[in-house]
Amino acid sequence: MRKPIELTLIRKPGCHLCDEADLVIQAVLGQFKADHPEAVVSMVEKDILEDEELYKQYWEEIPVLLINNKVHNYWHIDPVRLESALKDLA
Question: What topology is assigned to 5-89 in CATH?
Fold first, then answer.
């Protein structure tokens, strides 16, 4: 069995790109979970306004998507690229 996959969306309130990224991620995750019911995937969201270190690191790049704590994408989340990354980890 593969190890769990953890997605982290780093965002801030009122960010339209963050809202779009969340929609893309949820759509891809929904299909991925349907296709790979054995995969263990979790999703957390972090607000850069609540974490000074995240703010310093990512304020110019939000939204930022991390997969298992590594930057996967920022600004616009490519659904095909995300789906491919998840399949590689499944």
Answer: Glutaredoxin (3.40.30)
CA 5 to chain centre: 11
Render pLDDT for 7-57 as a digit per residue (tens, 0 to 9).
Answer: 999 999 999 999 999 999 999 999 999 999 999 999 999 999 999 999 999
Structure tokens at 87: 């399949």
- pTM higher than 0.85: yes
Q: Are strands 41-47 and 64-67 parallel, antiparallel or unpaired?
A: unpaired
Q: Give the list of residues 6+ apart from residue 6 with CB closer than 8 angstroms, or none.
A: 41, 42, 43, 44, 66, 67, 68, 69
